[in-house]
Design brief:
Elements lengths: L21 H16 L3 E12 L2 E13 L2 E6 L2 E5 L4 E5 L4 E5 L3 H5 L15 E9 L2 E9 L9 E7 L5 E8 L3 E14 L17 E4 L2
Parallel strand pairs: 6-12
Antiparallel strand pairs: 1-2, 1-11, 2-3, 3-4, 4-5, 5-6, 7-8, 8-9, 9-10, 10-11
Length: 212
Amino acid sequence: MKIIAVLLFALLGVTVYAQSNSKEAKAVLDKTSKTIRNSGDMEVNFTASTFMEQSQKGNLSGTIYLKGRKFNIVSTNVLCWFDGKTLWSFNKANDEVNVSSPSVKERQSMDPYLFCELYKDGYTYEMSDTSLRGHDCHEVRLKTTDKRKSVQEMIITIDKKTSMPLCVRMRQGVKYWIRISIQKCKINQKYDNDKFKFNSEDYPSATVVDIR
């Protein structure tokens, strides 16, 4: 199941980080956070990977459905449901469901928009202009000196036109990076709460392992 907790770091081209006014950078993040909150339920196509330094350790592509803090991940080998408290992770290969109560650190590797809950407290900001997949973007780099924080550094690439993130990179520890590349996003969708809970009737042969 580590592939779920693994999401991407690799440079997407050459960007020169020019230190910018930290208030301006935070204002960009504030606007992005507000835009996400006002976007309703979302369907997001993503590619996620993890890296130790520049060596790729895992890769996952799929779709994540979001409703507030709830999410449902659909990929080739793994399905996940999170109802805001409980996480069900189903591995198709061994027909097993792990049930857990994930920490914020564990959720960070699955939810591309969780940074909206993190950036306001304990980080410094730098911002530069860049481009990604043909979009003019802001790139905001956040760093902390607080060793207790699970995310020591974040790089958020934000489309200037839509104020939505196109890529989120996070460093945990010294060398471990997670990247979530957002390929497509549909906003203002409508999902029932049941979409974010595991239904055992749909997987009658699955073994359920409760690790809470």
